Amino acid sequence: MPITIRDVREHELDSVVAVNNAAGPSILPMDLAKARFFWEHAEYFRVVEQDGLVSGFLVALGPNAPHDSPNFLWFRERYPDFLYIDRIVIARPRRGGGRGRAFYADIQSFAEVRRPLLACEVFLQTGNDPALLFHGQFGFREVGQNVMGGSGIRASMLLKEMCSYPFVAETYGGKLPDAAWLKARALPGRQASLATGT
C-alpha cells in the first residue's frame, strides 16, 4: 500500500509517543507532554501513514522555538537562522522501505523556501555509522561535536545549506506565493507566517 506524508493531527500524539518509545536506544524517550510541546511549537511535524496507521514521524523547529534540547541550543548559539530536525523515527517493522528518504526529501522541500540551513545531529555510538552515511548522502556535513550534559552522549552536529533559499528570499522578500504546497503548518494558538513559520 502507498504511504502518505502529512501534518500530524492532534489526536495522533499518543501514536507518535508509542512509535518513538518503541524505536530503541538510538532515540531519546518522549512522553505526551513533549509530543504536545512539539505540536504547539514545531514548524514541521509530519507523520508517515500507511494502511491508516502512523508508522513514523519527523519533527523540526525554527531557531526561536522555546526548546531546551542541548543540541538545539548548540546550533542556536552558533547560527542565527536554521530549521532543526529534533527527531525522525520510523517504526521498526517499517524500516528499510524508503520512509526516511521520503521524509528527508519532504523536509528539504519545506526548509529550502524558509530557512538557509537544515540542522540535525547523529549520536556517535557504536553501530550508528549507517545514520552518518545516510545524512552524508543527503549533503549534510559535520560542523562540530557536542557532548550532552548529564548523559555524556556525544553527537555529530550536522548542517546542510539550502541552496534555493537565497533565490527565494531575494525574489519573494519573506512572503511566499499563496499556494497550497507552500503553506506553513498553522501552529495552535497563533497564526504561522507563510515565510518563516514563526
UniProtKB/TrEMBL annotation:
Residues 3-160 form the N-acetyltransferase domain. InterPro entries: Acyl_CoA_acyltransferase, GNAT_dom, UCP028520. PROSITE patterns: GNAT. One of its GO terms (molecular function) is acyltransferase activity, transferring groups other than amino-acyl groups. This is N-acetyltransferase domain-containing protein. It comes from Arenimonas donghaensis DSM 18148 = HO3-R19.
